[in-house]
Design brief:
Helix content is 0%, strand content 52%. With 117 residues, it is mainly β. The radius of gyration is 13 Å and the shape is globular. The strands form 2 sheets. Strands 2, 4, 5, 6, 9, 10 and 11 form a 7-stranded mixed β-sheet that branches. Strand 7 and strand 8 form a beta hairpin.
Length: 117
């Protein structure tokens, strides 16, 4: 069973920065893509960004230019670097490692990010 563990969340002031990490128990090259998602209180979980096996990255419009996804294949880790944080970035952030199209993927327990105004 694939295990995914997120870390790095916390409380940060508006305009601040934070980096989240996602450690996958298997080689990340085995996955079609690894996604970062977030769920704000009382709202549905939404995509923040993805990094494909090829290295191609894609971001939601709401975070473009502020968030960056990187990976360290040696450590099976995918990071989400967040800058210029806004209160609306508050939520639980999840990492989801998807092995193939149509798969729901393997999602961790999430890490909480709170941005104060």
């Amino acid at each position: 069973q694939v295990q995914v563990v997120e870390s790095g969340g916390g409380l940060v002031q508006s305009g601040g920065s934070l980096t989240l990490s996602c450690v996958v128990s298997e080689t990340i090259a085995d996955f079609l893509e690894i996604m970062w998602e977030r769920q704000a209180p009382g709202k549905q979980r939404r995509l923040v960004g993805t990094i494909a096996r090829s290295g191609f990255t894609h971001y939601a419009d709401s975070v473009k230019g502020r968030f960056t996804i990187s990976r360290d294949s040696r450590k099976n880790t995918v990071n989400l670097h967040m800058t210029s944080l806004k209160p609306e970035d508050t939520g639980t952030y999840y990492c989801n490692a998807r092995p193939e199209l149509g798969s729901p993927g393997y999602r961790g327990q999430g890490t909480q990010v709170t941005v104060s105004s």
